[in-house]
Amino acid sequence: MQQAISTNKKIVMSGIRPTGFLHLGNYFGAIQNYVKMQNDYECYFMVADLHSLTTHPDTKELKQNVYRVVAENIACGLDPQKSAFYCQSHVKETSELYLYLNMLAKMGELEKTVTFKDKARQNPDNINAGLLTYPVLQAADILIHRASFVPVGKDQEQHLEMARIFANRYNHRYGNVFPEPHAFNYNQALVKVPALDGSGKMSKSENQMATLYLADDDTTIRKKVMKTLTDNGPTEKNSVMPDYIENIFLLMQLVSNTDKIEKYTTDFNEANIRYGDLKKELAEDMVTFISPIRQKTIDLLNNEKALKEILEIGSEKANKSANQTMQIVRETMGLNY
Ligand code: AMP
Known about the structure:
The protein is mainly alpha-helical. The chain has two domains: about 210 residues, HUPs (Rossmann fold); about 80 residues, Tyrosyl-Transfer RNA Synthetase, CATH 1.10.240. The chain has a three-stranded parallel β-sheet with strand order 1-2-3. The radius of gyration is 21 Å and the shape is globular.
């Protein structure tokens, strides 16, 4: 039985692309907040399959990847009874809103987007129009539910800024329909989980040896953590921490207890730190964190029928909300003849 979503709570929307295995960055940048927010807000969380086509046009593994993202989110604690958990392509009206918003988006501002420039550099043979208008589709995903809060990692800050611009432009031109959507992390700075080698961030498709995946087995986790770059340790007390060591402490803050972090911080400040021990403890804390999620995902993936049903229930809820917004959109735009 479908559970009705209450209408007087603030609305939350976010999505994850099915472009590969989810990792610690997805968890701490996004999913952790999905799980917290689902109790207090009206939440719409989606698997962004259409977005994935901008960089992954081959759809052979798409279905499998969609189910994996569903299973991994649920293994992390997302409750499809509390939230609308759906697939982007199952809400057809998003494409309609995307079309209208495209008329309000300027070429110049799209071309300046950092993610567009990065992705164009990485895929010089496939700089397609979908890649350019990626932030417009993302704005449509958010605005179609008239969401105010968007739990995302730091890499999405600029896209949210653009979603606000498009919402305001629409409201100015046609009438006040959309609230301004803001990136959300419970009043904390947005999260960026660094890659293990300190070069950029953990990512689904790049830098795989420097990314800890929620599907990694215990041996792989230990191997990746033990390979993290360290040095002989500081030679003087209270030295400045090099970036690559700071990253290791950042990762500890995600999964280790405060006593441990304090001990190793003191050891560093005393110029008496054993990085081998630190890495061994960090590796065990990562194993403790990741292995139950991995195991639960494996169990969930064995029941594809249940995963399909979750998406069906989610898309019913999401379509109801999208339908209400689009009626208002068509009316305010004067497309009601
Ligand atoms: P994507 O993997 O690009 O589909 O992103 C899905 C969600 O995970 C978005 O909210 C991103 O901001 C977040 N995310 C992805 N990588 C990281 C990372 N390394 N650190 C923090 N958040 C991340």
